[in-house]
Amino acid sequence: MNDQTEIPEELIQIIRKAEHVTVLTGAGISAESGVPTFREAQTGLWARYDPQELATPQAFQRNPKLVWEWYTWRRELIGKAEPNPGHHALAEMAQLVPKFTLITQNIDGLHQRAGSQDVVTLHGNLMETKCFANQHLVDNWPESDAVPPHCPICDSLLRPNVVWFGENLPADALQTAVQAAESCDLFLSIGTSALVHPAASLPLMAVENGATTVELNPQSTPLTRWMDFVLTGAAGELLPLLVTSLKEAFNNDA
Ligand code: OAD
Predict the structure, then answer these.
(1) pLDDT tens per residue, range 16-40
(2) Active-site residue flag, 123
(3) Quick check: CB of 74 below 6 Å from ligand 1?
(4) Measured in angstroms, how far is the CA atom of residue 30 from the centroid of ligand 1?
(5) Helix (H, G, I), strand (E, B) or coil at 59
(6) Nearest 5 degrees, angle CA 155-CA 160-CA 162?
(7) Least CB-packed of 88, 193, 201, 225 within 10 Å?
(8) Which domains does the chain have, with CATH numbers?
(9) Atom 21 of ligand 1: nearest residue by CA position
């Protein structure tokens, strides 16, 4: 597929008039920040690591040290990454439309670091830590050699505050996301393979609700055929282009 270099004028006019824009992002938006995606051949994390050994509660129970250390490695990687022009463009887009809901499957915090407010984090946040037994969210724990360290409240093992396979999504985040998908007039799905539910159902809820739907991805996905507009290319290139075109459209109004 050839990447596109322009945003259709019809789409810009639809966004200009939209009352509520909802955006769902996946690992692809952080790819240009150097954060690996999951399912891409060769480079995706799940091409190199087995999620069943690293990203399930059972894996943690079997080998908590391995799981803790793998997430520590990812936390360090993400700590060195910077938000890219795609993250910044979404933070800017939020200022241009009456209502904007940003939902992400990413646990890297890069949207928040780019200045996006009230990000709906469906899969948790890698920078946060909670305990395995009671979900106590903790910022500090006593210095010790234990790996993983123990919860200062209940002494159970600490783990990252992320959603693992087989676990429920945070109920409040999911409810906010579903409401936004069902009530928006424009829905953008950006940089997600749309294979992991319930996140992958959100764009389809928007389709059912009659919203205009847009996918931005260098590859096609199971969503592609349902979308009104398909933007083929990298988020870090196409989103700044989209925001620039949108600002021009608003300036022409003035
Ligand atoms: P995937 O790795 O499944 O998909 C990443 C998508 O990003 C692919 O469709 C790529 O084509 C696309 N992509 C790559 N580079 C891009 C770029 N520069 N701009 C735009 N798109 C690009 O990642 P997710 O869909 O986020 O869950 O995966 C969903 C969930 O599966 C993750 O949240 C994680 C994983 O297991 C949990 O950890 C619970």
Answers:
(1) 999 999 999 999 999 999 999 999 8
(2) yes
(3) no
(4) 9
(5) helix
(6) 130
(7) 225
(8) 1-33+83-123+169-254 (3.40.50.1220), 36-80+125-162 (3.30.1600.10)
(9) 191
